[in-house]
Amino acid sequence: MKRPTRDTVDPDDLYRENETEEQRNQKAKQALSIRSEHTLRSENLPFDIDVWYPTVAQFTFPSYFLPLTRQEARAMINMYQTSILRRKWLRLEDVDVLRNLEQRLEEVFQKHFQGKSAFMRLCGRSPKDADPLDPEDILAEYEDQLADLVKKNPDMDPTDPNTRFVAFTKVNWMKVRNAREVMNLLLTSERVHVDMDDWLRYGEPEQIVLREFEPELTVDNEFRAYVYKNRLNGISQYDHYGVFPHLAEIKDKIQDKIMALWEVVHPLIGEESYCVDFGYLPSSDSVKLIEISPFLTCTGAACFRWSNERDVEILKNGPMEFRLNHQSHVTDGLIQAGIYERFAADPRRKRYWDFLEQMKPSSPPPFSYKTVMWPCLGMTVGAAAMYLSGAPAIPTLLFGLFTPLLYTQAKEAKLKREFAQKFEDSLKGIKRRSREELKNLIFFYGTLKSGFHWNQKYLSSSEMLCKARTVDPFPLVIGDCGVPYVLGDHKGKGKQISGEVWLVSDETLKCMDDYEGLRKGYYSRESINVTPQGEVNPLGTENLGEISETISAYIYFKTKSDPELLEQPFYDCYSLENHKKLYKPIKHIQVKQRAYLGIEYDIGH
Fold it and tell me: How far is residue 388's CA from residue 392's CA, in Å, rounded to a whole number?
């Protein structure tokens, strides 16, 4: 297991809750001044799976998204620090939060994956460095795959590192079938720990993504394509260490299928330069899109090299080249460390639930018979007294034997029920407190409305109060990415705007501030008056009191208007039709990240 190589904040720091905006900005600038994890995360952000998935869902694997809360991110960090780094950061409240997360995950499996398996990842990347739940089973499956490979290919040497590597690529060790397997990957991965830490430091929320598992999608069937300025100029096998002899025979066919699918999905992606991974499925002789990444050095170049000028020239300007690896770079040391040592059984290893049980048991302690000793003794003495007073012998004997036994069993069952109720109440308490904390009102007019691109990620734990219209006119325009803006530096112009008012918690409000880029200077948050339209959610009355005909809600204004935006027509509503037709999610997030990173998106920055 790898260990973090950078400092993490102390849990008492509460991830900048008590910091000023100036302090937070200074930390971000320091992180961006080097090739830090935060720099890499920021470069990849426009290509997170939740950015591009809705636009190309029919061409990739069905995926289900579970938005995380900041409390869950904190609990995951504290668990990693406790179980992996042996620091006592785990708190009692973290235990309830993690158990509630496990329950939420199990609900997703019950709803979408009954009888099926999934591949788990976060929005930005997968936990490839995590520990599987049963590593000894992985080794056993690897040995079976190795024996089967050599049996089918007698010319392959089982002691050769490349042969062993090819066999291991057939082991689906990241396949998950239930919530416990997902939690184990989440809580043992340094990648996940770093990404949760980055979120709480710099404000880019994460989601757990469960993708329908495809057993044929092994490493030898994955390929990376390179698109530059609307041309696909390069394809490579995804893994550049091993040699997969069978690929040479089907190379041309795979290239044709990748090119054909790319021509279909490219207009939907809405970006001129990127890298895109495809998977070849032998049984159906077809390819599917796996994921999209930036055309930057932070994306692996596979059999090409970003440091090689000729390779970069090919990837930018062609001619089209499909590269396969013809010389193995797999060594005995890599096999030993990457397979045998990594997946060796360790009797000292504790499961994540062992740590949770130590902190706060989910089952009652062993039943102590001392608690029923005196009542049972009294029943036995009573039976003896009945016998001495002339009661029939057999009924009295049965009473003396079975009454204490039945009493003991009833007492034990009652204690178990009470403990189970307390455990269930603690999980319900999390949900109840979440609803009670929805006391902030935000007026949304764009991509966060119900049914729009970002609604589930950011508002799944919130409640819509009502549809509404602004009392005053505001300039609502649509930018070239299909993103709606209300221009804060030109108030008084435009029209009354239709949108939605949502009830959100303080945590979600902070999350929205981060998403809208308040500290980066993209937007400002101000209060405006709106008029409710139609039905009003009763939760609003419960949390806020009576809802009047005019209510005050926050709105996010674009702080500085670009000249071209002022030339656009003013709208009174950003409709779902506008959204589906015009919105380019990758370009939208890129616009924000370019300003944040202070770079142009091109190789060599």
Answer: 10
Q: Do residues 312 and 239 lie in contact, with contact meaning Cβ atoms separated by under 8 Å?
A: no
CB atoms within 10 A of CB 154: 6
Q: What's the pLDDT tens digit per position in 83-134?
A: 999 888 999 889 999 999 999 999 999 999 988 999 999 999 999 999 988 8
Q: Is 115 left (phi over 0), alpha (psi -120 to 50) or beta?
A: left
How many Å apart are CA 119 and CA 177, to the nearest integer?
9
pLDDT at 8: 45
Give the E-state strand segments of 310-394 in sequence order. 321-323
Q: Could you give the angle at which helices 92-112 and 352-359 cross, rounded to 10 degrees?
A: 130
Contact of 434 with 500, CB cutoff 8 Å: no
CA distance 203 to 201: 6
396 or 206, which is more confident = 206
Q: Beta strand 321-323 with 231-237: parallel, antiparallel or unpaired? A: parallel
User: Residue 222 belongs to what H/E stretch?
Assistant: strand 222-228
> Among the options 72, 190, 204, 516, which is catalytic?
516
Q: What is the total residue count of the chain?
A: 605
Q: Sign of the C-alpha dihedral, residues 94, 95, 101, 104?
A: negative
Lowest mean pLDDT among 230-234, 318-322, 398-402, 497-501: 398-402
Residues 354-385 pLDDT 10s: 888 887 665 555 545 455 455 555 556 565 65
**pLDDT number for residue 531:** 96
Contact partners, residue 198, CB within 8 Å, separation at least 6: 37, 38, 41, 204
Give the pLDDT confidence score for residue 11 in this predicted structure.
47
To the nearest whole percent, how much of the chain has pLDDT over 70? Answer: 80
- Interatomic CA distance for residues 313 and 316, integer angstroms: 5
| Residue 600 confidence class, pLDDT cut points 50, 70, 90 | very low
**Mean residue pLDDT across the chain:** 85
- What is the bridge-based pairing of β-strands 463-470 and 274-281? unpaired
pLDDT of residue 605: 32
pTM listed for this prediction: 0.82
Q: Do residues 462 and 67 lie in contact, with contact meaning Cβ atoms separated by under 8 Å? A: no
Token pair 């208007």 in the structure block, residue? 561
Nearest to 185 by CA among 144, 220, 240, 138: 138
> Which CA distances in Å does 505 have to 106, 227, 459, 490, 501?
25, 41, 10, 30, 13
Contact 555, 526 (CB under 8 A): yes
Q: Which helix (H) or strand (E) holds 566?
A: helix 563-566
The answer to whether 480 and 442 have CB atoms below 8 angstroms apart is no
Taking alpha carbons only, the member of 200, 5, 30 closest to residue 85 is 5
**Can you tell me the mean pLDDT for 433-459?**
89
Instruction: Tell me the C-alpha distance between 555 and 17, whole Å.
Output: 22
Q: What is the largest CA-CA distance in the chain?
A: 108
Are 129 and 191 in contact by the 8 Å Cβ rule? The answer is yes
Is 549 annotated as catalytic? no
Q: What pLDDT, in 10s, does the model give residues 57-85?
A: 999 999 999 999 989 999 999 999 999 99
Residue 297, token pair as written in the block: 């050095």
Enumerate residues 6+ apart whose C-beta is below 8 A from 568. Answer: 477, 478, 479
Quote the CA–CA distance of 141 and 118 in Å, as a whole number: 18
For residues 379 and 82, give the distance between their C-alpha atoms in angstroms, rounded to a whole number: 49
